Amino acid sequence: MFFLYGNEDFLIQQEIKRIAKKFSDYQIVNVNENSDFISFLSNIENNNLFSSKELIIVKIDNLLLKEKEEKLNLIIDFLNKNNHNDKKFIFIEKTEENINKNKKNLLRNYLLKNAQTQEFLSIKNNEIYKYIMKIVKSKNGFISEIDAIKLSTLLPNDLYFITKEIDKLISYNPTINLSTIDALVMNNFQENDFAFIDAISEMNFERILFLYKKNVSMGQSINVLISQIFSFFNDCFIVDSLLKEKKNDLEISKEYSLHIFRIKKAHIFIKKVGISSIKKWIEELANIDYEIKAGILDEKNAFEAFLYKFLKWKG
């Protein structure tokens, strides 16, 4: 049984891959956060004689942590009695808090005492370049230490986003140097943490919520997040309009000082959702922003309601 927790999702996912490789003959089963975990455990008990080897990944969310003590004890009792070698559990909790100082929850406390635990925290800013060098090497690329340091100053402290940028650079040239970085990488300080917009453009539910909570916990205002989304939607509208005028990406970039990568993201997003949906979201965000500033709406509730509606979009 494993318990992986912390705020660095990339490192958690890497550890899951490592464990899965160790148990390569086990089928991976992801337990949906919205499912009844106790019913899931009951099914294991009832079908034990006919079951196959399974590596069961359980994401611990607020609903599970807030279960009544009686239900949590049922889960703990099952785990205590679980002597099935064909069932291995990986529990994951994404959290910004130091859970060793907050052991009030029965399940969390049990896992800390009985599972193989590992904490994965955001890496220190002065160590990002070392991870960049490791990631590049693992992908059969090359980057010098000085260029890795340069790259680390342009990217957010987010290994998921850093890896995506490295993939982009390596696809252009496996040897990453200063000229490649200058040509293809946007400056994080100018772009106000593009990782959040990257998640928005992909409509990645889990990542949007994770980055939203992370950014707010680090002191970023919801108003800034609204501005970032509005800016990206507006870029999409500009790109679509200029494409109709037969302008290419380089012309759009020069005319509106938009980074090429941002334009590419706009292309993908427009294709995914359509310009009419983007226009509707621009109007909706403008109204929300106005009503928040006028004191009509609560900032947090209004923004979360928008995110929920956005992520439920079906076209």
Sequence of strands across the biggest β-sheet: 2-3-4-1-5
Tell me the name of the CATH homologous superfamily of the largest domain. P-loop containing nucleotide triphosphate hydrolases
Characterize the main sheet.
5 strands, parallel
β-strand percent reads 5-15%
Number of helices: 17
The number of distinct structural domains comes to 3
Q: Mind telling me which CATH architecture of the largest domain this is?
A: 3-Layer(aba) Sandwich
By CATH, the topology of the largest domain is Rossmann fold
Query: Which CATH class of the largest domain is shown?
Result: Alpha Beta
Low-confidence stretches: 188-192
- Radius of gyration, in Å, reads 23 Å
Average per-residue pLDDT, rounded, comes to 82
Overall number of strands? 7
Question: Topology as H/E string?
Answer: EHEHEHHEHEHEHHEHHHHHHHHH
Shape: globular
Specify the helix fraction band. Answer: 55-70%
Keywords: DNA replication, DNA-directed DNA polymerase, Nucleotidyltransferase, Transferase
Organism: Mesomycoplasma lagogenitalium
Pfam families: DNA_pol3_delta, DNA_pol3_delta_C
Domain DNA polymerase III delta subunit-like C-terminal: 191-310
